[in-house]
Amino acid sequence: MKKLLYYLAILNLLDGFLTALGLHLNVIEESNPLMGNLYDLHPFLFLSLKIILSSLLIILSIFISEIQK
User: What is residue 29's three-state secondary structure?
Assistant: First the structure.
C-alpha cells in the first residue's frame, strides 16, 4: 500500500509538471474545469495544488505504515 501511494504521488507530480508545460506551450487544453481555472488564475496555483495533493498522499502512506506496525 505504501509503495502504491508513493507511486500515485510521483505520477500526480509528473502529471502536474507535464500538463503545465503543455498548457504553457499551447499544445494541450485542460479538460478539468477546476484545474483549468486555477491555471488561468496563475500557473503557480495549479502546480501548488498538485504538490499539496502529492504531499498529502505521502503523509497518508506514512500514517498508514505507522498504524500497521
Answer: coil
